[in-house]
């Protein structure tokens, strides 16, 4: 994910955007590759500054890893993709019961498989569909009743298979979920949107829409 970062609502124009805010704006708002890459660089610089003050800052570690992973997605950089993978896996290993970390590991693996196919993803990047799906299931199990985790699971599964048999139930669970954060609300809206082609049995449209609703899905490349 991951899949996938919290969206903060800035209450006042004098409040500086955090590195995570900048990352989120890039992931879900950017329509231009060059602008997106500039925002990712800004977010990573902010994370680096936080890590210089406190190397154990988990939020900064996560933001830096996601910035690298997103850059890899936009530039097709194998080095960045592998770097992000190792950072994500380390964060998940440090706290195996963190649903966000599990969702991000899932997103990395599934996005790689979706982008280049299972064989190339496994050979070049070490990404595996089975690893991604297992982490995705863990994120849902650990995420309580929050809308974000089943909604994200539905979207990611649909990017692999527009007729995924579990996707509809996960998207519907997202609609019943709690929305304590702006990201939960965004993913819940996305789950609601993708349910339209899913319920209509239009697997091709469901897959295409799921890809658009995930980070950088609408960036012109």
Mean pLDDT: 90
Gap from first CA to last CA: 20 Å
- The parts where pLDDT drops under 50 for at least 5 residues are 1-14
Q: Report the radius of gyration as a whole number of Å.
A: 16 Å
Q: In words, what does this structure look like?
A:
This protein has 11 helices and no strands. It is an all-alpha fold and 221 residues long. It is globular and about 50 Å long.
Quick recap:
The protein is mainly α and 221 residues long. It has helices at 19-29, 33-53, 58-75, 78-94, 99-116, 118-125, 129-142, 148-160, 167-176, 182-199, 203-213.
Task: Give structural attributes.
single chain; 221 residues; mainly alpha; 11 helices
Strand and helix layout:
Blueprint: H1 19-29, H2 33-53, H3 58-75, H4 78-94, H5 99-116, H6 118-125, H7 129-142, H8 148-160, H9 167-176, H10 182-199, H11 203-213
Helix pairs in contact: 1-2, 1-3, 2-3, 3-4, 3-5, 4-5, 5-6, 5-7, 5-8, 7-8, 8-9, 8-10, 8-11, 9-10, 10-11
